[in-house]
Write a structure and sequence with these properties.
The chain has 8 helices and no strands. By secondary structure, the protein is an all-alpha fold. The longest helix has 36 residues, at 190-225.
Amino acid sequence: MWSFGYWNRKNAKPQRPRPQSGAALYAWVWKEQFWALVQLNFMVLLCCIPVVTAAPALCAMNRVLYNMFDDRPQMLWQEFWSIFRREWKRALLAALPMAAAAGILIWAGGFFRAAAYSGWWSFAALLGLLLLIFYGAYALSILSYVDLSVGQSLKNAGLMLLVCARQNFLVSLPLLAAAAVLMLLAPLSVPAAVVLIVPLFGYTLAACTHAGVRNFMLTQVQASNQ
């Protein structure tokens, strides 16, 4: 879908049917579009160098990944930059309360400070940051995928965080395990982390949020517009 060869496979062997959902769809897109994920990875990293543009970059990343799950033909670079330019103001506005919440949690947990803090406070702050990551994934996905305002996107991201709590918890376990492995192997793991941050972490989060946003949010919005 994202390469010239996809449209020009002459005499190619028959492909397995495309899965519609679940882990099978996750694995299928990973296998078929891995090179596109690597390209997307460097586009996102490049756009995140000025930290203030991280939210629009993640917003565009989620839309591109959602198109992959929906099997929508797209030109990778053009789609990314189109969403980045269209949503950068709204994405920045949506990111402000999340950035403030992240700062409060980091301060409350005593991270990057010399003073000794209770392990329970640090654990609670880490848990809060994990929930904030999932909340941000939902918010930026809804913002670029569903026709809602910034306030509505933030509100519905909180609802999705609760509705899909079980799924979020199950997905968080392998993500935490992968992050722990990369940290334990640092600095040797730094090159792998740079190359795989979107194909592994961003892609997995998008896969987690996609089903909920598509089945609950998009369906409700389409029904209300009819």
